[in-house]
Every structure is written in C-alpha cells, then in structure tokens.
Design goal:
The chain has nine helices and ten strands. It has helices at about 30-45, 60-65, 75-90, 105-115, 120-135, 145-170, 180-200, 240-255, 285-295, and strands spanning about 50-55, 95-100, 135-140, 205-215, 215-225, 235, 260-265, 270-280, 280-285, 310.
C-alpha cells in the first residue's frame, strides 16, 4: 500500500483523548463478617455496666474548677450535660449507676494512690472506686432534679453506716469480750428488735426512725417496711442494714437513743408509737411520752402543734430475747 504521507488523527499527540466523564467511585463492600463484628461489639457494650460520678452540690462543683482539666464553668450546664449523658447510655441499654463525687475524698484518694488529681484519668479511677464501695443510685430515666436529692440521701446513708460500723467495732474493746462477739451480739439483737416492732404493730406501711447519740454526734437511720401482705414484712435494702447497724450501735454503747414508728393503714388515721433504748433493748414509751417527743422542737425545746390526722399511741411491750 502506498504511503500518502498523511497521519491518522490517532497518531497525533492527544489524538486518543480520554472521555470527559468522571470515573465512577466504588465503595468497599461491607462484608458480612464486618457487620457481624460491629453487631457483636454493640451487644457486648450492653453487657458492660457504667458508673457516673456526679457533682451534685454547687460548692463541690466550684471546688473542682481549680483543676485545669475540668473544663466546665457552669453548674447548671454541667447537670444538663450529665443528664444527656445518662439518657444516652440508657438508650443504648447500658446499666448505669450514679455516685456522688466528693472533691475532698477525691483529693485524699489521689494523695493515697499518688495520682495527679488534675487529670480525667484520675477522676475515672476515683469513680471506679466509688462503684466498688457502694452508695450508688441506679439510673432509671428519672429527671436530674429528682436524682440529685436521692443521691445525696444515699451518700449520707452510706456515711452513717460506715461511722456506725466503726463505733460498733470499737465497742468490742470494752470489757473482756472479743471484738467480733460484742458487735455480732448487738447486731443480732438489733435484728430481733426490728422484727419484734414490725410484727407487734401489725399490717400496714411502716416508717421507722432510729436516733442514737454517740461519740459527740447523732446517728439517724430511716427505714420503710411494707407489711400489707401476708408473710414477712418487706424491708428496703440497704436501708435495713444501716438501720440495724445504728440500732446495734445504740445497744452496744448503752446509748439513750430512741425509735419511733409511723404506721399508715388504708381508711384509718396514721398512728405514731415510740420506744427508748434502755439496757440493750427497747422500752415502750407511754402515750404522753410519744406526744411530747413529737410535739417538742428538738432544737429549741419549745412546744409545737400536733399533726392533723395523726394519733399518738404508747409503744407496745416487746419480749426480750434470751
């Protein structure tokens, strides 16, 4: 074939032009194994509980602000963010408990463990310790305004139990008895006294308060007992443990404390009864003594009017255990 000298356009520079359309992007296909792994991790995350330490008091919040790593500067905003965090954890099915963050105890914890208190890691370590020690509230979707008072009450109850336990333990050093013998005997007697009181007053919802002056302070324990149904009364725990420990402390120290019980029964007036701690057991108060105890201001000693719809009755005699 003769050569004409002409060049095909395909032989010219740029003759083979690339199409102007963009190359379609391709996404890496999701493998079944990867999907299963993420699903498994989410399932495992629901198996891991969480603990959140909350600065419920504004003064405690202010005490944490001198740490540079603590970035919040408004207590109200902090509480709102905490509530959002709790809701997010609950939405994922994570069991979450809330503890009270105490800046003073935190500082002592960091000093004992030689941790730098100005780090989020140290605050996390302290929160983990709180979860082990107890005194936490389970988050069940309650508003922060209702969670905070409950949290403070539980923390105070925990502190009361720890202090009463220490006093009860020290009571074992009195006389020639071994430490565990005195403490155990007083605790067993307190459990017997609690059962005897609730059984003596009969069915209803009972609210009990035990007050024991000890070592320059006053130990106060509160307990709710539901005896509306047949069988043993239902006692709220761990409040029951705290109540028995405080009462045992009064027995062991021979403290002049007292126990009062308010009973609520449907279609009846509320009744109030009382007992005094005496010689390691409960002495029933007379109706006049119960009235005086309830209708006298504890701080000023001045009389206060009786409650409307409340009947003041004498305590019931209780058989002392052998």
């Amino acid at each position: 074939m003769a050569h004409t000298g002409r060049r095909s356009h395909r032989n010219r520079p740029g003759g083979h032009r690339k199409p102007t359309t963009q190359k379609p992007t391709t996404q890496k296909p999701t493998t079944r194994r990867g999907t299963r792994r993420r699903t498994t991790r989410r399932a495992l995350r629901r198996e891991v509980p969480s603990t959140v330490a909350l600065l419920a008091d504004e003064r405690d919040f202010a005490a944490m602000r001198h740490y540079a790593s603590f970035t919040f500067d408004d207590h109200g905003a902090y509480l709102r963010e905490m509530e959002g965090l709790l809701k997010a954890l609950a939405a994922k099915g994570v069991h979450t408990t809330v503890a009270l963050f105490d800046p003073v105890a935190y500082e002592e914890f960091c000093a004992d463990t030689r941790l730098d208190p100005d780090t989020a890691t140290s605050r996390t370590r302290y929160t983990a310790e709180l979860a082990v020690a107890g005194g936490t509230v389970t988050y069940q979707g309650q508003p922060i305004a209702r969670l905070v008072p409950r949290l403070i009450g539980v923390a105070e109850e925990q502190a009361t139990w720890e202090y009463a336990t220490a006093l009860l333990s020290r009571a074992g050093h009195r006389g020639e008895c071994r430490e565990d013998t005195t403490a155990r005997a007083a605790f067993d007697r307190a459990g017997a006294a609690l059962r005897a009181v609730v059984e003596a007053v009969g069915p209803g919802v009972h609210h009990l308060v035990c007050s024991v002056p000890a070592d320059g302070t006053s130990l106060v324990a509160v307990l709710h007992a539901d005896a509306r149904e047949a069988g043993p009364p239902k006692l709220a725990e761990p409040s029951g443990l705290v109540f028995r420990t405080v009462l045992a402390c009064g027995f062991a120290l021979r403290s002049p404390g007292g126990l009062v019980l308010r009973t609520i029964v449907a279609d009846s007036m509320e009744t109030v009864r009382g007992w005094a701690l005496q010689d390691g057991w409960l002495r029933p108060l007379s109706e006049a003594e119960v009235f005086t105890a309830y209708c006298t201001d504890a701080e000023t000693g001045e009389p206060i009017p009786p409650e409307h719809g409340v009947e003041y009755r004498a305590g019931i005699p209780l058989s002392r255990p052998e």
